[in-house]
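HOLO CASE FILE
Compound: IPE
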Amino acid sequence: MVDLIPEKLPKHVAIIMDGNGRWAKQRAMNRIRGHEEGAESVREIVRATRQIGIPWLTLYAFSEENWKRPRYEIGALMKLLKRFLKAELNEMMENGIKFQAIGRIYKLPRDVQEVLQETVKKTSPNRETVLTLALSYGGRQEMMDAMRAIAQKIEKGDVTSRDITEELIAENLYTAGMPDPDLLIRTSGECRVSNFFLWQMAYTEIYMTPTLWPDFRREEYFKALEEYERRERRFGATGDQVADAKSRWDL
Ligand code: IPE
Ligand code: IPE
Ligand code: MG
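Model generated. Tokens follow.
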């Protein structure tokens, strides 16, 4: 067991859960088995996040580009999502997990949308950890939707171009009200962001691991958190400035 320092923990962890298909292929199994095993990792990581006391966890579960996949795989993923939400509701309630979904949710099958809505509604009073699933999510599409929303406000005369600030843009993203991710984890060894959180990731610490998502469990998660705690986040300042500011805080 690793020693984590509570004050140094990230407030928001985002994960690109990748490698389910390869996990299955290595075992001569169908890709769907990989997704099922991946759902077990989701369960374990959500539980661990809540236990450690991290307030925000966002999981990239289905991208806008994933609609390109074979129809049967999309169907199986949707079914799995529905099953997962139903099976996890009790645990979410017991553990104070507030659930939400971001992305072009209206593109998902109606029955999936209904279960999503129900889960959001039932878990809305919960206050411990916010679990966000990014579904039919794309960073560029999110920015496009935000630009449209802002343009409409300008057309209506509610704001002018001079009112466009980082804050206004952030307020019009799907992630309005959420802090930017402090730590991004990507499993399966791929070193790319695949259209995830393009705006939000400006100063996010990135942790890549070759471990495939179905094998990414508690121990691996703790390793990522431990590594995050060792990083020095400078946000454009110098290392000395960061050390100075820290020593002033410590006084
Ligand atoms: C991640 O695993 C799950 C989704 C993108 C839905 P993949 O299905 O992408 O697995 P690989 O990358 O093919 O191994
Ligand atoms: C990224 O994984 C999307 C999710 C994990 C939901 P992909 O497997 O779709 O990414 P690429 O295509 O390898 O970049
Ligand atoms: Mg993949």
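CASE NOTES: The helical segments are 20-26, 31-52, 71-94, 110-123, 139-156, 166-171, 218-230, 239-250. The longest helix spans residues 71-94.
CLOSED: yes
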